[in-house]
Amino acid sequence: xxxxxxxxxxxxxxxxxxxxxxxxxxxxxxxxxxxxxxxxxxxxxxxxxxxxxxxxxxxxxxxxxxxxxxxxxxxxxxxxxxxxxxxxxxxxxxxxxxxxxxxxxxxxxxxxxxxxxxxxxxxxxxxxxxxxxxxxxxxxxxxxxxxxxxxxxxxxxxxxxxxxxxxxxxxxxxxxxxxxxxxxxxxxxxxxxxxxxxxxxxxxxxxxxxxxxxxxxxxxxxxxxxxxxxxxxxxxxxxxxxxxxxxxxxxxxxxxxxxxxxxxxxxxxxxxxxxxxxxxxxxxxxxxxxxxxxxxxxxxxxxxxxxxxxxxxxxxxxxxxxxxxxxxxxxxxxxxxxxxxxxxxxxxxxxxxxxxxxxxxxxxxxxxxxxxxxxxxxxxxxxxxxxxxxxxxxxxxxxxxxx
Length: 403
What we know:
Layout: H1 28-31, E1 33-34, E2 46-48, E3 51-52, E4 74-75, E5 78-80, E6 83-92, H2 93-98, H3 103-124, E7 135-136, H4 156-169, E8 177-181, H5 183-194, E9 209-213, E10 216-220, E11 225-232, E12 241-244, E13 247-252, E14 263-265, H6 270-282, H7 297-305, E15 309-313, E16 316-322, E17 327-329, E18 334-341, E19 344-347, E20 351-365, E21 371-383, E22 392-395, E23 397-398
Parallel strand pairs: 1-20, 7-22, 8-10, 13-14
Antiparallel strand pairs: 2-5, 3-4, 6-21, 8-19, 9-10, 11-16, 11-18, 12-13, 12-17, 15-16, 18-23, 19-22, 20-21
């Protein structure tokens, strides 16, 4: 029998809905940000918030003239509205007529949420503004020195105790304390809490609030900052890989064209190989067969939503972004891969944030085209003022062993 009834006569159907795009929930504006200064910005782009000098206490002897007077002074600081973020795209009217779905509306919704996520990451990036004494490192958790340190069930309590101690040292009260943790650290907290049969973490609120723990309101976020240093000493070999947050980049021989998703040309030297990898990770320059072949749309989404970027200088590939990111490499000449995550602790409102224009979408008719250009944009400014830096603490969490 040689019947062929499998193609010309089979029906084909479309699902009623497209696949969802899962965008990170935003936490920063509910926890770390203070937005009260927005009321002072009637117009213009700058809000001043100076701080005053400290007074000095001295002895006084009755009947003796005071000879020493404390000079009063101040220092001006200000927050500028200086950041504009934009997503722009075009949808033709013919596509609106003929597409099964209203792509203009769907993409507009995605754009608004992605801009909010960008704000979330920008606020969390201010973790590094914390006062120099407010860094939790190995020496605070049972190790030595100021390097990053692994956290597990045996020392998770210490992390919060140290964070509290550092806030106490700077006279920050016990009220309104927060912590921003990723899924892996939250898992450790839950396992620790589980031994005491508490209900901690049974429900995560829409704003990321997990619940109170160790005197802190614990928030779950997939935007906890991270950085990774990949130390290199030789050119990689054909077929070897580097994996960034589950996205695989495969080294391709220089004599062969890159024609499969994620392939990166090894070039002729170590420097050219890693320059090509930087282009591939960042994705801001179109790939060519002699540099890299872009990863799949799904993988590019992972890198984009994590704001994952790379740079390379003198045997060091630096990768940074947001989320519980795992990075590994099988490449020749990779001497080490060291990843550090930066969970944040502190007093709510420590980072001042003013949004001049909330993330929103505008539709503009094109003069010479049948369709609309879509502009999703927001404008804002943020700053950690000097006196608020002591209200921020961050952990240098060694996450190199994560798999």
